[in-house]
Design a protein that fits this description.
single chain; alpha+beta; Jelly Rolls; Glycosyltransferase; 3 domains; 10-stranded antiparallel sheet; 4-stranded antiparallel sheet; 15 helices; 19 strands; 32% helix; Alpha-L-rhamnosidase; 6-hairpin_glycosidase_sf; 6hp_glycosidase-like_sf; Bac_rhamnosid6H
């Protein structure tokens, strides 16, 4: 029943080339101003009818699960009928099987009586959200919003025709026929899946299917957010957030290789926030900008893109220099921000922000040397030296300890034993969990990192996730129902009952690219891929299998795809096979 969609996705993964776009001649010179759609559209039928309001009001709903033609037909043969009376509303809830970005297409037969009908369409990332009420943006517990994307709307639909509705992130759709004493006939109700048509060049497999699923879920989460620009979320936060981009860019490098969406997004962000502004109005996000520029260059070796950003890179360094005095005090911004869950721990956030700045300056110095900006390279070293006059303590905050380990301000072993490893996955976050995993790897705690990935990110899968969330707390799971079913009496709603800060209740995004950290982490540390020379001209392969028996995968580079396989023998020794394209040296 979903064969067509699967075939199309397979073509995407195989790397089908897009056809050239032709504009009708009647547009003439006007065609120069037309914006083409970079995305591909698939029509995906629902996999399951989750619920209907009443057997006497909704009939023949199973036809909606079939692949259709997309063409309206006269008559009402083999269609789902929805009849609303003055006292009862005909409603249907459809499950499309996985998180999607896009909208809904309705193909309709003749209404009875024949006229336009009023329907309510609700998109949901969970069953509960698709059945929730909208609170008009008040962000109340148990209510949903239309922030950033319309997901709850009332509209007119035609008879003997078709209509396309919505642009948001969802898995479930509820349709209510609101016109009393009227019957509408639905021939088809496919989701419009709108995505970037690119192949998955990177891959990962091992003998633990849970880890395989986590790797692919992280990859798919970022893929959905690779729209015209690189978004943070496909339902809410459909914006470019430079800090949030860092895990997404790491995932793109591990899965898709170079993609123009990264360059475009960095360019647009700098246009939106010209100096001396901080990117996104957040000082730490300008630090992330420097780190992303460095890592993106190391993978792709594109010096031209760095040169294009020369003035912005040096301008950010000058801006930072103004804000750090000779005693190491810094006043980059009154508000410190790492991620939302760390916000209450202000001393820890202070330590983390200073560590992030040290990390960014280290990468910025490399960028300046590449750009032959020696004075700014010297300035980076001088700022770093001033900062180190005051090294703050993490105050038990895992986010801060992870950044201090990465920045070289705290020994990884100490950061992990005293802070990050305490209570395992407790107090991990979806965004900064990536850096906690990196610190564990620095300390050689690969097995603990694998256990935490299984527990924390796997915990979302256990609750029905097909993409990773804006935030997740292990304390939520104890009495929670899955997102892909109705919540039984006495159970917690994993979507509606939780969430905090800017994402309470159903405003909580269930597809957030910053949560994809385990995907690049497994490529970097289980497959063991380390880039030694820019453009991937030299790679060091150092596997860390932990309790795994074997792992294999691919890694995309500008010179082609590298194949890697590691097998652990009975004696514990690992035998590795690496196949790399010409031009790549493997250590």
């Amino acid at each position: 029943m979903i064969r067509v969609a699967i075939t199309a996705i397979a073509l995407c993964i195989a790397g089908v080339t897009k056809a050239q776009t032709y504009v009708p001649p009647v547009f003439g010179a006007d065609s120069l101003n037309i914006h083409t759609d970079e995305m591909t559209r698939l029509y995906v039928p629902p996999q399951k009818v989750m619920w209907i309001s009443n057997d006497s009001l909704v009939s023949n709903a199973e036809v909606l699960l079939l692949s259709g033609t997309g063409q309206a037909e006269l008559g009402r043969k083999s269609m789902c009928s929805m009849h609303t009376t003055k006292s009862d509303t005909a409603s249907i809830l459809l499950d499309y099987g996985r998180e999607l970005h896009g909208g809904l297409k309705l193909v309709l037969g003749s209404a009875k009586p024949w006229r336009t009908a009023s329907v309510r369409i609700r998109f949901g990332e969970s069953v509960s959200e698709a059945c929730s009420q909208n609170d008009g943006g008040k962000r109340r517990k148990g209510y949903s919003t239309n922030d950033h994307a319309m997901r709850d709307m009332v509209m007119q639909v035609p008879g003997d025709g078709q209509i396309e509705i919505g642009s948001t992130g969802f898995r479930f759709i509820r349709i209510d026929c609101l016109s009393p004493d009227m019957t509408i006939y639905l021939k088809e109700a496919p989701a419009i899946f709108r995505y970037r048509n690119i192949p998955y060049l990177g891959s990962f497999r091992c003998n633990d299917q849970r880890l395989n699923d986590i790797w692919m879920t992280g990859a798919y989460t970022v893929h959905l957010n690779m729209q015209e620009y690189l978004w943070d979320g496909i339902k809410r936060d459909r914006l470019i957030w430079l800090g949030d981009m860092h895990p997404e860019v790491a995932t793109i490098m591990s899965v898709f290789g170079h993609n123009e969406v990264v360059n475009k997004s960095i360019d647009l962000a700098c246009e939106q926030f010209p100096l001396p502004q901080w990117l996104n109005g957040i000082s730490t996000y300008s630090m992330w900008y420097l780190i992303i520029q460095h890592e993106w260059y190391v993978h792709n070796g594109n010096i031209d893109f760095l040169r294009h950003h020369r003035a912005y890179i040096t301008g950010v360094i000058d801006r930072i220099d103004e804000c750090v005095d000779e005693e190491g005090n810094e006043n980059l911004a009154k508000q410190r921000f790492l991620d939302w869950p760390s916000s209450p721990n202000q001393p820890g956030v202070e330590a983390g922000c200073r560590a992030l700045l040290s990390w960014a300056l280290k990468d910025a110095e490399v960028l300046c040397n590449l750009l032959e900006e020696q004075e700014h390279a010297k300035k980076c070293r001088a700022i770093s030296k001033r900062l180190k006059k005051q090294i703050k303590q993490p105050n038990g905050l895992k986010q801060a300890a992870a950044l201090m380990s990465i920045a070289g301000l705290m020994k990884p072993e100490q950061a992990c034993s005293e802070v990050i490893s305490v209570d395992g996955a407790k107090d991990f976050s979806t965004f900064y969990g990536y850096y906690m995993l990196q610190a564990l790897a620095q300390a050689g705690e690969y097995q603990q990192a694998l256990d935490i990935i299984r527990q924390y990110w796997g915990g979302m899968l256990d609750l029905g996730a097909t993409t990773f969330w804006e935030d997740f707390n292990l304390d939520w799971i104890h009495n929670a129902a899955r997102l892909d079913d109705f919540v039984p009496e006495g159970k917690d709603d994993i979507h509606g009952d939780f969430g905090d800060y800017c994402y309470p209740s159903f405003r909580h995004s269930f597809c957030h690219g910053w949560a994809s950290g385990p995907t690049p982490w497994m490529t970097q540390h289980i497959l063991g891929v380390e880039i030694v020379d820019a453009g991937c001209k030299t790679l060091r392969i150092t596997p860390h299998l932990g309790d795994l028996e074997w792992a294999e995968g691919t890694f995309p580079t500008p010179l082609g795809i590298v194949y890697i396989k590691h097998v652990k023998g009975a004696d514990g020794k690992i035998v590795s096979t690496v196949k790399a394209p010409d031009g790549i040296k493997v250590i």
